[in-house]
Write a structure and sequence with these properties.
This protein is an alpha/beta fold and about 325 residues long. It is about 35% helix and about 25% strand. The chain is built from 10 helices and 18 strands. The strands form 3 sheets. Strands 1, 2, 4, 5, 6, 7, 9 and 14 form an 8-stranded mixed beta sheet that branches. Strands 10-17-16-15-11-12-13-18 form an 8-stranded mixed beta sheet, with helices on both faces. Strands 3-8 form a two-stranded parallel sheet. Helix 7 links the parallel strand 11 and strand 12. The radius of gyration is 19 Å and the shape is globular.
Length: about 325
Amino acid sequence: MSLATSARRAGALLLAAAGLLSATGTAHATGTYTAVVFPDQDHTVVYDLIGSAARTVDVTMYELRDTTAVNALIARQRAGVRVRVILDGQHTSVNGSAYNALKAAGVGVTYSSSAFVYTHQKTVTVDGATSLIMTGNLDSTYYANDRDYGVVDTDANDVAAIERVFAADYARTSVTPSDGDNLVWSPTDSQTRLLALINGARTTLDVEQLEFGDPALVDAVTAAAERGVAVRIVGMNPDTYGSQFDQVTAAGARVVSYSSTTGLYIHAKAVVADYGTATAKVFAGSENFSDNSLNHNRELGLIVSDPGVLGTVESTFATDFANGSPY
């Protein structure tokens, strides 16, 4: 099967799983990028992507505690597909069961390099042609309540860059990641790329973040509000980030938050700038607004102007903003 055929096959399965492909095979959303919203959609999109692999599956995951995903990886290995998995080495208590099951089945599985504080990336790549970049882990403990996003990426330059970094991280050798066409890597350039996105906003800026503590990014959000950008933030844990929320609201931003104990849990990491304009862009990825996440972890996200991804993330953000508790 060619790379192009593999990518088309995986793309069709993913569109179907995401509810974007009709029973007759007519696509309602097409293109290089496709957004997925959790928990509105289930994780069938992940299982179908793994199941579509004809030659290779490469997974980098901070937490892997999903029996269905583990079994899907093992099934591909037994079908003759080369399966390799990197799990965060600081979370062996969470990842140990998956590690042991994968190892026993002959899957190439390793714990992450100590060069990073955490390997917090959440990516599944099949056949060197399709990558699913997620804000959330493959940990079914949290599926029911966690707000997370995923972006299916079939851009050849993006996927090639992801695979090159995967190979180095799997071998625990150093690498300077390429951004491909749209990637955002930690610890290489995520802070710089996110600052450029925020500083470039001219009309609106919507931020959905589990953590909101990095001074450089918080200052940039504050400056955006001060120059007249309509800033909205959906966050978590106001007791933890109260001083940062105070800073941005004093500048004119509007903030809502969610409780860590009830209802929706905002685990997402997303930014939408200038939605509805010709220069609109959206970020989604594993990077939190924290120094560790931006400068010391292995993380991966992307920034795109794709209308489908923009619309999906923005409409979900709007719902979450409307339902949050005003700060």
